[in-house]
Model the fold of this input.
Amino acid sequence: MLHHILVVDDDEEVREGILLQLSDTRYTILEAEDGEKAIECLNDNALTVDVIICDVRMPKINGVEAVAYFRREFSGTPVIVLTGFPDLDLAVMFMKEGVVDYLVKPVEKAKLIETVEWAASQRTLFSESGK
Amino acid sequence: MKSISGLSASRALLAAILDQVGEAIISVGDDQRITMFNKRAEKLFGYSAEEAVGMPIGELIPTRFRDDHGRHVGRFLASGETSRRMGARVEIVGLRRDHSEFPAEAAISRIEFEGRIIATVIIQDVTERRQQMEALRESEARLVQAEKVATIGTMASGIGHEINNPLYTILTRAEAIRDEKETSQSRRHAQEIIKNSKHIAAIIKDLAGYIRPGVAHDLEAVDVNDQLREAVSMAGHSLLGDQIAIKKNFGPVARILARPEEIRQVFFNVIRNGIQAIEGKGILEIDSWQEGDRVLVRIRDSGSGIPKDHQGKVFDPFFTTKGPDQGQGLGLFIVKQIVEKYEGTISLESQEGVGTVCCLRLPVAQKS
Done:
């Protein structure tokens, strides 16, 4: 079974950075440059997304709206927010929304892998409980 | 004809009135010697009236100003002509008996009395007023600086985003070089590290220009459109989403004479207000053009508008309708101070639910 991580970030270099950091893991990276593309990807039944890594500041649908949508429509898929905003209020808001973690860039490879693995284990739990 | 006793009584009354006046009053004969010295003058200069009467008026002025002063008074007594407007208050420096100096304002007038010419000088010590003005200027400068710091605070998370993204790119490429089994990608990663390092340096430079306190230096010929572009870019750092369309219609304009960081701050503050007023999705339109010897900038937002009863107060210090985390209500106050310093004007038109239009007019630099 293929394991997928959906990376939602408008910055191509950041997406490539995440790809580099997760290149030695069992995950295949799916990229989306904005919230709209991410939703298209999640609605593609051929794919199973294990974890979503989502930026905050993005065009069209920003991270706040996108995460709210993911949590509502794909509540079984754990979300990690990876942002450049070191903002406590924003972090609290996302944690209340039910995201697994709020990471501030630049995050080190080991920390990202650890967080992704932990989030994926949450997905297993979510899946067993239903959706 | 008045009786002798009546005359001396009215003189005594006049002297008593003059002694009650809160300003120093000194009269001088055509020989520039003091003929009258009221109580306030005694207190101000430290001489008694007995000591002062007969003394040259020049003794009350520091020696470095004395010759010049003597010429002025002499010409005034002889002809009534003066380089100073009659009755107008001028700034002088007074010299006390103990040789200490004080800033003062003086008004001089000339009377012809019984064939003699008398000059009367009214002097007011302005030490306290000067100190108050100075304290006011200092506190205003502190407030302006505090607002800049507060603005930086609101921008900080936005700037964080701008810096942390390239930092993340640098980190991931450096990790990739460290962990690579074969080095085919190393050169590309290194190039990306260099590019992003330069990008961060440019942001820091931008920010440093904004934070730098008001150091006096020469004015520069400033391209208004360049400053608008930079202000838009800085305001853009603090935009959470990109759902505000910024339309830029910059026309050809002559340069203005100013400090570029101040002009940038004017535009930044107005643009930031527009973005905050939009609260989500909307349009911010920025136009620039020239009309005669003025550069015009119009910043129009499709925000919530300013209620009618607030419109007269928006330039007042500390007037704000925003939360405490969005500034202290000094943004437009500072804008007005800067614009007026450069002999420009600013006007606001706003309609609730429609938006706000801010018009700035700045004089173009005169060709010398």
Notes: Residues 139 and 145 of chain B are 10 Å apart (CA to CA). Chain B has three domains: 4-125, 127-216, 217-368.
